[in-house]
Amino acid sequence: MEPQRFGRYELLAELGRGGMAELWLARLVGVAGFAKLVAIKRILPHLCDDKRFVEMFLAEGRVTGVLSHPNICQVYELGDVDGRLFLAMELLEGVSWEQFLTVVPRGDASRVRLAAGVLGQASDGLHYAHDSHGIVHRDVSPQNLFVTVDGVCKVLDFGVAKVMSEGTRTSTGMLKGKLPYMSPEQIKGEAVDPRADVFALGIVLWEALTGQRLFSRETDYMVGQAVVGAPIPPVSAHVPFGAAIDAVVARALAREVGERFPTIAALSESLRDASERFGGAATHNEIGALVRSGFAETLAERARRVTEASGASAQRPAPPAEPTVELALRDESIVVARKKSRRVIAVTAAVAVAGGAAAVIVATRHGDAPARPAPPAPVVAMAPLPDAAPPPPDAAPAPEIAFTDVEVPRHKPARHAVARPASTEPGFYSVDSTPYATIFVDGKRLDQTPLFHVSLPAGAHQVRAVLADGRQRTFTIQIAAGAEATSGTLIW
Q: 331 pLDDT exceeds 90?
């Protein structure tokens, strides 16, 4: 494709697209032939006028703009070109933690060393966010940990992070993150502190060592119930890694917040100590060598595609850089400065990532992989564009839920289509969607899926689910006082 000019960048190839944003391989165009490959994440056109989304995008930028650590994805710029907000981010080469594990046989003791090495690095980045800036990630999962060809673990997607000084409660039922990796207090809408990330990393650790899913269930409601109270078997019930490993994982997964490791750094230190009987935590060189050897063909194909895209761009004379609008964030407002035509204005240094992880080109592997089979064809993926978590091994897919559409008379607003009972005690509602959808109840926008334990008045309600491409589905639900209703996962 022909490169597209976007401010001082050239968009070379689209890497991925989600319901809220698109991700591009881009080339920063400078003077005297200077060029740098980056990833550009920009919001979709139809969301540019969505005040709520724009405010969320920028608010998250304020939360994470101060983060600068070798184990956290780097964001270079937040800007605006012709009304399109964008992020310029670090372009990473490697695989996700989940994919990385496919080249390590299950039950192999090397999993302990690799977990101590890779997850230890992730802990370093998270501890920096916790300790230096009071930021809780709240979405630690295998998809948000990335392992580079240099053996460095990068924590991705601080898009749902929360600054502790700004309060820790979210609106009732508005959960942010991935349900199977949430802490019990997060599920219940209680106060969240850095120990929520300890619990989430404990889940990632348990799954890495056992090769199983810990809280996989048929519905989101059942997932939430399992996180809050289902028994957690020790790692040794699946693989014989010893009592020391069991003790580390059990403390990380303590449901009572006060019984967990006090910091994520303490979890990392205990894990590294427990790995000594297996040879100690894997080094950067060992981790990087495994990435390069296990995914050699896919990485080579990725490099070829990047070279072709950037090479074609380099052969074209670069037009003069278009002016970039300067953004300064002050409290809850957006201050847009006048355009300056002769130089590119840098975005205020205090502003950085909003919902941002690096653009990543990921190699996908399947199966238990007791040996290192030839890598499959490359699959381009991105973070943090929303996607469904992969199914657990040997698990049957969740059944499709069928709904009956309800026609609402055009002359009568949907919110008046059903009557309310006199009872004042509310009930609760949960729903998910693949792909994700925006949920409206009685004409009022709630949030994007997944929604868990949303408080609603008892009685009948009209629900409308809308996808990013405009497709929608309308159905009714019945809420009983004090009870939970769920529509499961909507399959489109």
A: no
- Please tell me whether the peptide bond between 384 and the residue prior to it is cis, using omega within 30 degrees of 0: yes
Give the pTM.
Answer: 0.64
CA atoms of 230 and 353, how far apart (whole Å): 36
pLDDT band at 251 (very low <50, low <70, confident <90, very high): very high
Residue corresponding to tokens 């809308």: 466
In percent, the amount of the chain with pLDDT more than 90 equals: 42
At 8, which helix (H) or strand (E)?
none
Given 80, 82, 131, 139, the catalytic residue = 139
Give the residue, 416 or 25, on which the prediction is more confident.
25
d(CA 411, CA 169): 39
Per-residue HEC secondary structure of 174-213 comes to CCCCCHHHCCHHHHCCCCCCCHHHHHHHHHHHHHHHHCCC
- Residue 94's φ and ψ, nearest 5 degrees, are 160, -145
Q: Using alpha carbons only, give the angle 110, 116, 121 rounded to the nearest 5 degrees.
A: 130
67-80 tens-digit pLDDT: 899 999 888 888 88
Helix pair angle (110-133, 264-274), 10° resolution: 160
* Alpha-carbon separation of residue 22 from 41, 84, 87, 319 (angstroms): 6, 11, 11, 24
The CA distance from 107 to 327, in Å, is 51
**Is 139 marked active-site?**
yes
Q: What is the pLDDT of residue 442?
A: 92
Contacts of 411 (CB under 8 A, 6+ apart): none
On average, the pLDDT of the chain sits at 77
pLDDT confidence of residue 177: 60
> Closest Cα partner for 101 from 311, 287, 319?
287
The number of angstroms, rounded, from the C-alpha of 363 to the middle of its chain's C-alpha atoms is 18
Question: What is the DSSP track for 382-447?
Answer: -SSS--PPPPPTTPPPPPPPP-------TTS-GGGSSPPPS---EEEEEEEEES--EEEETTEEEE
Range among 119-133, 426-440, 454-468 with highest mean pLDDT value: 119-133
Instruction: Among 2.30.29, 3.30.420, 2.60.40, 3.90.980, name the CATH number for the domain at 414-491.
Output: 2.60.40
Tell me how far CA of residue 173 lies from CA of 139, 258, 275, 429, 484, in angstroms. Answer: 16, 24, 39, 8, 12
**pLDDT of 270 above 90:** yes
d(CA 184, CA 200): 10
For the residues 245-263, what does the mean pLDDT come to? 98
- What type of residue is 345? I
Q: Where are the domains of the chain?
A: 414-491
Listed in sequence order, the residues at least 6 apart from 156 whose beta carbon sits closer than 8 Å to its beta carbon are: 73, 143, 144, 145, 146, 357, 358, 360, 383, 384
**Is the predicted pLDDT of residue 10 greater than 50, yes or no?**
yes
DSSP structure class, residue 325? B
